[in-house]
Every structure is written in C-alpha cells, then in structure tokens.
Amino acid sequence: MQWYEAEVRALERSVSVRLKGSPPPVFYGSSSFRLWDTLAEDVGPTVLNLGFGGSTLQACDYFFGRLVPQVKPSSLLVYAGDNDLGDGRTVEQTLTSFNSLADRVTAALGGIPFGFVSVKPSPARFPLVDRIRELNGLIKHEIETRPGGYYVDLFAAMLDQSGKPRAEYYLEDGLHLNREGYRLWG
pTM higher than 0.85 for the full model? Predict the structure, then answer.
C-alpha cells in the first residue's frame, strides 16, 4: 500500500481543509474518479472527490478510515475494482475487498446513501469482461442488501450494439475516460 501513500497524504490534507461547512457527497475510489476534472460541473459543486490513482478496492478498504469518516459525508459513491482484476486478483478476492469496505462504511457512517458504480468495460480491460460482469453482478447483489446501498449500472451504456466498449468514451490508453465518458457518467 506504500505506492499510494503520497497521494493519500495529499487527500488527507485536502479533507482537513474541507471539514468546515455542510457534509458533502463524497466520490471515493480509483483514477476514474480522481481524473474527473468536471465532477463539480457534472454532478454538483459541493461534491468532494477522494479518488486516488491506480487504487483498488483493496486499497480503498485499507485507506477508508484515513479519508472518509472524518468528512461525515452526506452520501458515498465508490468506483473501484477494475484495477484489482487488472492486477490479477480474482473476482472472489475483489468481492472480499468490497465487502470489507462496505462493512467499514456501515460501521463508520451508518445507513447513509452508499453507492457503487459498475466496473466499466474499458477497451484496455476488455479481455477481462466476463470477470467484470461477474464482479458487477456480485457487488450489485451485495450492496443492495445493505442499508442505504444502491448500484449505479453504467456498464451496458458503455457498450456498442455489438457488445464492445464504445471507444468514443475513452482516452487513447483505452482505460481512462475522456470528456464524453464523464458526460455519460454525470
């Protein structure tokens, strides 16, 4: 987890500044959130972005206590999981990380609205699409059993009619979203 430490420390500093004012909705997860430069425009000006690059559900679980509870968010939306699968973790290992994170959310924040954005079908990770589908289905089932839990399914909207990822939503790396991808997510 040392790989994330500098970015997590920077987020901790930004959180300490943000503690003044009303509890914000928090977006927490990987670079798919971190790189969303137009998040306030697309979603709302009060949202707090706690995404950190390359993060996994395992890392989100590990750093949760340092980043999220002290903000006392009005809601929490998580995006992570594709880096876990891309790094070779199994669907079961990734689901275990999600469940551990979800347990922390419930313990620390009670029944606030707590959502999970489906793992996206990116061109770079399309060879993993069956595992992504399986993970999405398992997380959807798990989160919908939790107080305040909901699932945001963007997977199908990111596919073309032949079932392939719509390249117009992605940067050249085939992994990260471009402005059109973020418009869809918004």
Answer: yes
DSSP characters for 121-168? --GGGGGGHHHHHHHHHHHHHHHTTSTTEEEE--TGGGB-TTSSB-GG
What three-state secondary structure class fits 61?
A: helix
**Cβ–Cβ under 8 Å, residues 105 and 76:** yes
CB contact at 8 A, 46 and 22: yes
Angle between helices 91-109 and 57-67 (to 10 degrees): 20
**What's the token pair of residue 44?**
């709302």
H or E element that contains 13: helix 5-18
Could you tell me the strand order of the sheet in which 114-117 lies?
48-51, 25-29, 75-79, 114-117, 149-152
Consecutive H or E run containing 152: strand 149-152
**CA 165/CA 120 separation, integer angstroms:** 9
Whole-number CA gyration radius for the chain: 15
Cα separation, 108 vs 72, in Å, equals 9
pLDDT tens column, 129-147: 999 999 999 999 999 999 8
